[in-house]
Structure formats: structure tokens, C-alpha cells
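Help! Submission page says 'invalid entity' but I think these are all valid:
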Amino acid sequence: ETGVTQTPRHLVMGMTNKKSLKCEQHLGHNAMYWYKQSAKKPLELMFVYSLEERVENNSVPSRFSPECPNSSHLFLHLHTLQPEDSALYLCASSQDTSGNTGELFFGEGSRLTVL
Amino acid sequence: AQSVTQLGSHVSVSEGALVLLRCNYSSSVPPYLFWYVQYPNQGLQLLLKYTSAATLVKGINGFEAEFKKSETSFHLTKPSAHMSDAAEYFCAVRRVSGTYKYIFGTGTRLKVLA
């Protein structure tokens, strides 16, 4: 496996379900991100982890709960979601060190539909 | 505060014609600038990046972009469009240091006509 891998690729859940999205990066990067992509909106940064520490939490509702157990894995735990949370959730990683441009490497995304 | 504006949410070109996708940024200091491409049902892939070296940047798939500080622009071009270029393109900016915040534009969907 190379790059950034996201599972599942597609998820349908009811408003009362609990599910999780998983992201794994094989690039040796030290930062990982969750973005939300909705139609006709710019990408929304949700969370950033650097060296397993959360460094950014962009006013995301508590029904989204991130977890970063190590520098290669990132989870997004979902519970009691709303239909407007239906979107493509993108995971990304970067190498953020001095002198590095830190471009983002994205996974293919998890398409979430909340019924 | 930084911002990115992509002019034109949809652009159509004929196969073989010039591709020009526009991006203007606002930043108090010279930033890093990126173009990403997204094919249907996929994540974003880096096309090219400007990191304060050469102002004309060449990327993958024959794309290039020119950083123009006086115009605060970073437009993406390709001399001859191919059907496989049909995708959504995103311009992004981030500060050189001290932040993990990438600001993305709203995207431009490129359609290539046969």
C-alpha cells in the first residue's frame, strides 16, 4: 500500500447510528487532516493532528470525534449525525518541518450519506 | 487574512485548445501556492506548487502556472487540452510558516469538448 488510504469508500448511516471512518498514511508524514467536501462549498478543514496531537479544531460539532492513535492512523468517529453532514470526507497528510513546503497528500475520500 | 478566488466555476474548452484556469490570492506575505486536481470519485492530487523559487512552475500532465506578485495571481495553463483533463481544479494557498491552514478556492470544473 502506498499513499493515503481511506475506508470505507462509501457509508450510509441513519441519524442514530455510530460509525467510524479510517485513514492510514504510508508516507512517513507527521501531520494528518480531516476535510469535509460538500457540493458548491470550499473544502472545510475539520481537524489537524501533528505528531498525534490535535493542533486544529475548526469549530466542528461534537458529533464528529477524531482520534489519532499514532502518526500513521487517523479516525473520525461519527454519532447522531444530521442529513446535512452528508458529504465527501477527505483525509490528507503532510510533512510539516522547517524548510518543507508541506503539500497535502489526499486519500480518495469516504462518501457519507446520512438518512 | 488569506483568501483564494477562482474565477469561473465552470470552464469549457475544445480538445486541443488552450486551457486557462484563473486563481487570485490575497495574502499579507508571499505564500506557498498550489494547484490540485480532483477526478470524479477521487481525492485531490497535487498538480504543481509555487514555493518562492522560479515564478513559472511546471507540473504534471503538461500543466504550468505563473506566479505574478504584482497581480496576486497564479493562473493555471495547458497549451493543448486533452479529454483526460476533464476534472475539477482547486487553487490553494498557505503561509510559508507557522500554520497548517491551507485555504482552498471553490474549484473550477473543466469540461473538454470533442
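Support: the input was valid. A stray whitespace character was the problem, and the output above is from the cleaned input. Chain B has no helices and eleven strands.
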